[in-house]
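Q: What structure does this chain adopt?
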Amino acid sequence: MKIVSPDVAVIGAGPVGCVTALAFARRGAKVTLLEAQPNNKKRLAGEWLHPPALEVLERLGVSLSPDTVNYDTGLGFVVFPDDGSKPIRLEYPSGAKGLSCEHNSIVSTLREAASDRKEIDFISHARVTRIQGQQLSVESFQQGDPFTVVADRIVGADGRASIARKAMGISHNPQPISYMAGVLLENVKLPFEGFGHVLLGGVGPALIYRIGENKVRMCLDVPLNVPKKLANLWDAYRSIIPSELLEAFRQALAENRVVWVANQHSSRTYYGRPGLSLVGDATGYFHPMTATGMTVGFMDAERLVESHSFKDYQNQRNFGSYVPEMLATTLYQVFCRDDESAVAIRRAIYQMWREDPTECFRTMHLLSGAQTKIFHFTGSFIKGLAMAVKSVFENNIATGQWRNLLRVSLAFAQWLRLPMTIAVSRFWKNPRGSMSLKEGV
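A:
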């Protein structure tokens, strides 16, 4: 049986796997990049790159930037509040720009860049069937005969169904959150070109952004208890869709230009073991509302290559990806829940964004992954929570609703449990980690 012996073996040639291979190759390592399903790049997956992700690609010499497309993109986000008030623009600070485009284009560009590097041996239609120590058993659907890869460093960049994670016996019980309906609109103009549009007030939030000169992606968050029917999408979301997009939305549903995926949450608790590291969704994932998946994965790859040891890598990413996960989880809860505490927090956030430009910049720094310090997140979170509590207390005291005040107070206390729950799973309950939350700060 043929034996291949690179310095590094990367399982999975999605965006994160390609970036991992390119980052190791840039350091002079010989890399074998294995992809089992090369034609799976057309699925609904990441289509938004925050500025830090583009900075990673720039350092790797990959030309995937806003300047390479013929439409405005990556300026930030515009939030359409559920109370019908004026949209709120959240721009990336200091003129930074992100990029939105079809997932297929991102994957194709990165695979081409990986194939062009002499240090990388890109093998498609190659499925890893077994991992034993530092040895991979691989089935090749192109070369015919199976072969073996032996490498001192193996990287699992093979997504949510990671065979690398399974080989280490890491339990994986993702929590279902909702469904995502990806609707393709054609030949429309967005209210705020260049921005991602976050629409609130439907049965779930919606995210709309341009992915091509004549293509716009509409991502509709559908609760688990809502039937997955096209007619229901129209009834559930037409009230929050900007009027200039309604006809294109109706046409897309009539032509069934809709792709469904499941939104799940799996906290980023484990990063592998020495000699077999996990990156991207193989480590964990969260709701895609903040569009941070690929950006976090790219930063995983870069930190892995730069780390002196596996322990160093795990410590860095345990801390470095906590804020993106916490922000995505918290914002989703704030934007979806309709109880009095959630409504009050939403209003407080709107007020903060409208009145304090510093909070807008802080939000975008956190959202993009440019800022990962916990106290920056907790400072804004506590400030918004305090404003919400003050408003609810004043309203309930003024109207004499003492029982309701007690009930809402308990609900506010639950909001404080969310950050701590994820922190405990990462920094205290992780038997393979070594960094406490206190040490991380």
